[in-house]
C-alpha cells in the first residue's frame, strides 16, 4: 500500500482572490513581511499497491482532481508499512 500526497495550486498567471484577501488580512493583523499568499488544495490518496502509481495519480489529477487549464499539481508517494 502507498499514500500519495497531492498539492494543487493555481497557475502563476491565474488571479487568486482568496490568497489576496488572506494576504491583506495578515497585513492588517500586523504580520509584517508577508509579500503574497497563494491558496490551493491538499489531498491524500491511498492506493492498494505502488505498481503504476505515478500513472494512476497523473490520470486522476488530469481527469478529476485538478483543472489542468488553471491549476498545477505536484505529488509525493510514501510507502505504508
Question: Would you kindly provide a written description of the structure presented here, covering whatever features stand out?
Answer:
The structure is a single chain. With 81 residues, this protein is α+β, with helices and mostly antiparallel strands. It has one domain (2-79): Phosphoribosylformylglycinamidine synthase subunit PurS (Mth169, Chain: A), CATH 3.30.1280.10. Helices cover 31% and strands 32% of the residues. The protein has 2 helices and 3 strands, in the order E-H-E-H-E. The protein has helices spanning 17-28, 53-65; strands at residues 2-10, 40-47, 71-79. A 3-stranded antiparallel β-sheet has the order 2-1-3, covered by helices on one side. The protein is elongated and about 50 Å long. Its EC number is 6.3.5.3. InterPro entries: PurS (IPR003850), PurS-like_sf (IPR036604). It comes from Salimicrobium jeotgali.
Summarize the structure.
With 81 residues, this protein is an alpha+beta fold.
List the helices and strands and how they pair.
Blueprint: E1 2-10, H1 17-28, E2 40-47, H2 53-65, E3 71-79
Antiparallel strand pairs: 1-2, 1-3
Strand arrangement, largest sheet? Answer: 2-1-3
Q: Could you give me the name of the CATH homologous superfamily?
A: Phosphoribosylformylglycinamidine synthase subunit PurS
CATH class: Alpha Beta
The count of helical stretches stands at 2
Give the overall shape, derived from the CA principal axes: elongated
Portion in helices = 25-40%
Largest sheet: 3 strands, antiparallel
Mean pLDDT across the residues is 96
Give the number of domains: 1
- List the uncertain runs: none
SS elements, strand count: 3
Written as H for each helix and E for each strand, in order along the chain, the element string is EHEHE
CATH topology call: Mth169, Chain: A
Please give the alpha-carbon distance between the first and last residues.
7 Å
| Rg from alpha-carbon coordinates | 16 Å
CATH-level-2 architecture: 2-Layer Sandwich
Beta-strand content: 25-35%
Structural class by SSE content: alpha+beta
Amino acid at each position: 500500500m502507498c499514500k500519495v500526497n497531492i498539492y494543487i495550486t493555481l497557475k502563476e498567471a491565474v488571479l487568486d482572490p482568496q490568497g489576496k484577501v488572506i494576504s491583506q488580512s495578515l497585513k492588517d493583523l500586523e504580520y509584517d513581511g508577508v509579500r503574497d499568499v497563494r491558496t490551493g488544495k491538499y489531498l491524500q490518496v491511498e492506493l492498494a499497491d505502488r505498481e503504476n502509481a505515478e500513472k494512476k495519480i497523473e490520470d486522476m489529477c488530469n481527469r478529476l482532481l485538478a483543472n489542468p487549464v488553471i491549476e498545477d499539481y505536484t505529488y509525493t508517494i510514501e510507502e505504508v508499512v
